[in-house]
Design goal:
The chain has 798 residues and is α/β, with parallel strands linked by helices. It contains 28 helices and 31 strands. Helices cover 41% and strands 18% of the residues. The chain is elongated, with a radius of gyration of 34 Å. The two termini are 23 Å apart.
Length: 798
């Protein structure tokens, strides 16, 4: 299957991109005859509920670093309704954490008064976004279902896969997304009882690519979250016991608490655990309220340490003055004079100093800067060269100056330091080793022995990423330009060397120059890239692209379809047919008839177009073979068939089902005589023709190969049927059959082609409205092109 778009990662970017593209398709009333295929792939299927950062199961105890007033408008609109309050209350009631109990008691009622300033300054649990995304998933799936049920010739397919993409290659505008050995397909539904997502793993399927470890897509969006921190361990020590390398990805605070309890149980809660954090910012602050409760309320013997090279931490997001703050330095006149990136930093530093000396917090000044888009106005004054300097150097300085967060964890941190429960160590970690069930932390000054180590040192820069994230390593290896901040992207967030790969998140260099909230930024960026992807999808003639690619690779055997007995289709479609279910391909509501002599090339052409149009190829000759097989098993055949009531043969034919054609035993040499007898009987051919028509009615689209299918079966004018007759001389047909037999294990499959065509002459009939394809003079590619153009033109005008 060729996907129109694949999201790598099921979190904010992955889902938002997919939703935006699909909703634009649903809103377009002019689209016709299209199948749109989308996929969301994540290494853990549960991440679809908000990714690592916002998934209610992973973001437990975590809170936003920004208040509601800085949140995305669409998200704020959702949290103002009663349904959100009910969902959030259910979530909080299921938590046993200290920080959640405090928040519920102090702030939950604030959600009742959305006009109050306190509502705007509220810091929500990060799981709030996951709750919203869960409901957006429900809505999207319902919208797709309603859309597909409409009587139009468009269908949207959305698939969910659990796997990890580790490499992307591109060939002839088609991307190949390679994954590891783990591959599962899921159905996502709504549990009506508790309004939760239900993830149902589908029965192990055979991948459409014949077990090739890749997906094919026209476009993909990468949203795999923040880069992991530096490992600090040797490659052969990746699984060091009691070392949490990637705090958030491994389950954040909840995982840490479970690890502490497990270690305490081992020593019967007597020995004091030494727990070291590498880093002094978000990850440490998030876990401190819960760890403090374990120490003060549960009386667990734990000693906490935090190692940092600077010991700079995140500041309180606190408005400490009811007066209106007025700028001293960032006035309109001063902004107009700015020409250099360094001046932006200097002006903001001066403004912060002014705020502090006049009874305001830095957060007061920063709040006003964000509200009035001051940073954006200053950046507009910079030249291209100065903007580059800002992105490479000064953006990081500004980010460190302006990191504010929910005040409670900072207040608890200060108390823990005061009481001696948290000790700060200034130093740079060089390495972590494992020795006698203890962890050894080697810094630039000394060594420390730890029971548990948690790495919260922050994400690595993209230019330093290597084996930590295989996909990033692969993208760098394929010469996609990158710098310390990430991959260089265009305005639509496609990477420079591949206009169909989009990176709207933190992996993009300069993805958020205006320092708006990360959530706001990645939503806006993915909205922008999704509009571009949507235009690429609807304006692209996908069939033509597939056709050109197959022509270029005509010497390569197809790996997307398979033939069993008399049917050719994708392997998963074969399974559907075996289960007596049938395919409604809205994007291709046409039946193709390919008639001609044996050896004319009907099957070759048919398989080619089966792949292009994702259809089903039925070789009508196998209906005779299936009847022969059944007759042989029933032992009703006599060499003098006149001695047998013809109705017995017809009765067998009438009972043949489509799945009877999926039989690899139909080419047995012993059946040739019976098959020949059946094919030369007029009454039996009439019965077979009725069966062909019946099979045709099972599918909205299919391809038939035969002798007289266009003239006898589909003889009435029908707008959704297009007929071809392939001309071929007996000599060329025989030569082609001979080539097919060379090296074949099944040499009894074909008998003499010339004799076969002569004996079947009366049944080889050209329909009056058939398009003649002279396959004597034309080469293979030219004949394919002629047939394709006829089909594609009919499809586009249908």
């Amino acid at each position: 299957m060729l996907f129109d778009h694949i999201s790598i990662g099921g979190g904010v970017i992955g889902f938002n991109s997919t939703e935006k593209i699909i909703n634009q398709i649903i809103d377009n009333k002019n689209l016709q005859n299209r199948n749109f295929n989308f996929a969301i792939i994540d290494k853990k299927i549960n991440n679809i509920e908000g990714g690592i950062a916002y998934n209610p199961k992973l973001a437990r105890y975590g809170y936003f670093n920004n208040p509601i007033r800085l949140s995305p408008i669409s998200f704020v609109k959702y949290i103002k309704n009663k349904k959100f309050k009910q969902e959030l209350l259910k979530y909080l009631n299921n938590q046993s954490g200290y920080v959640d109990r405090i928040w519920k008691k102090k702030y939950f009622k604030t959600l009742d008064n959305i006009q109050n300033n306190k509502f705007e300054e509220l810091y929500l649990p990060r799981a709030s976004y996951g709750i919203w995304q869960k409901n957006r998933i429900f809505n999207l799936l319902n919208n797709i279902k309603k859309f597909n049920n409409n009587k139009n010739n468009i269908k949207i397919n959305l698939f969910f896969y659990e796997s990890e993409i580790n490499e992307i290659t591109s060939e002839n505008k088609i991307l190949k997304l390679f994954f590891d050995n783990s591959f599962n397909k899921f159905q996502i539904t709504k549990n009506i009882r508790d309004s939760e997502l239900l993830f149902s793993k589908e029965k192990k399927i055979i991948n459409e690519e014949n077990n090739q470890r890749y997906f094919e897509a026209l476009n993909c969006t990468i949203g795999i979250g923040l880069n992991p921190p530096r490992k600090y361990t040797d490659e052969n020590l990746n699984d060091i016991k009691n070392y949490i390398w990637d705090f958030y990805a491994e389950g954040s605070t909840n995982n840490l608490i479970n690890l502490i309890k497990k270690n305490k149980e081992k020593n019967n809660f007597k020995k004091k655990l030494k727990v070291f954090f590498i880093g002094y910012k978000a990850g440490l602050l998030e876990s401190l309220p819960e760890l403090n409760e374990l120490i003060t309320q549960k009386n667990l013997k734990i000693k906490l340490f935090a190692i940092s090279s600077s010991l700079e931490t995140i500041q309180k997001a606190e408005l400490n003055n009811n007066k209106i703050y007025k700028f001293k330095y960032l006035t309109k006149n001063q902004i107009c004079k700015i020409t250099k990136a360094k001046e932006i930093i200097n002006f903001i530093k001066k403004e912060f100093t002014f705020a502090l000396t006049n009874g305001f917090s830095k957060y007061h000044a920063w709040t006003k800067i964000l509200k009035e888009n001051i940073l954006q106005k200053m950046l507009k004054k910079l030249s291209i060269l100065e903007k580059t300097k800002y992105e490479k150097k000064y953006f990081t300085i500004l980010r460190n100056l302006t990191r504010f967060t929910y005040p409670l964890p900072i207040e608890i941190k200060d108390k823990m330091i005061e009481k001696g429960n948290l000790k700060l160590i200034k130093g740079s970690v060089l390495n972590i080793t494992d020795s006698n069930n203890k962890l050894v932390i080697i810094t630039n000054k000394q060594k420390f022995i730890a029971d548990i180590v948690i790495n919260v040192s922050g994400p690595m820069s993209t230019n330093k990423i290597n084996s930590e994230v295989r996909l990033i390593k692969n993208l760098k290896k394929n010469l996609n330009p990158f710098n310390e901040m990430g991959f260089v992207v265009k305005k639509n967030f496609s990477i420079l060397n591949h206009k169909n790969i989009f990176i709207p998140g933190t992996l993009a260099s300069g993805f958020n120059p205006n320092r708006i909230t990360i959530l706001n930024s990645i939503l806006l960026n993915s909205d922008k890239s999704s509009k571009f992807v949507y235009k690429r999808i609807v304006n692209l003639d996908k069939n033509k692209l597939i056709f050109n690619n197959l022509i270029k690779n005509k010497n390569k055997s197809s790996i997307k379809i398979t033939t069993i007995g008399g049917i050719t289709a994708r392997k998963d479609v074969m399974q559907v047919i075996k289960n007596n279910r049938f395919i409604n391909n809205k994007s291709f509501p046409i039946k193709i008839i390919l008639d001609g002599k044996a050896g004319a090339g009907k099957s070759t052409f048919g398989k080619f177009f089966t792949e292009i149009f994702d259809s089903i190829l039925i070789d009508t000759g196998y209906i005779f073979k299936a009847a022969s097989y059944a007759i042989s098993n029933k032992k009703i055949y006599k060499k003098n068939y006149n001695s047998v009531d013809i109705n017995k043969y017809i009765s067998v034919i009438n009972k043949i089902d489509i799945k009877d054609l999926l039989n690899e035993k139909l080419d047995q040499k012993s059946l040739i005589e019976i098959t020949s007898m059946l094919a030369n009987n007029k009454k039996i051919r009439v019965a077979v023709n009725k069966k062909i028509k019946y099979f045709g009615d099972l599918f909205s689209s299919c391809i038939f190969t035969g002798r007289d299918t266009g003239s006898r079966v589909f003889n009435k004018k029908n707008d959704n049927v297009i007929k071809f007759f392939i001309l071929i001389s007996d000599k060329i047909a025989a030569l082609r059959k001979d080539k097919q037999l060379i090296g074949s294990k099944n040499k009894n499959r074909f008998f003499n082609t010339t004799e076969r065509n002569n004996s079947d002459k009366k049944n080889i009939i050209i329909a009056k409205d058939a398009i003649i394809i002279d396959n004597n003079k034309n080469n293979y590619a030219f004949s394919l092109k002629v047939i394709f153009d006829h089909i594609n033109n009919k499809l586009n005008s249908y």
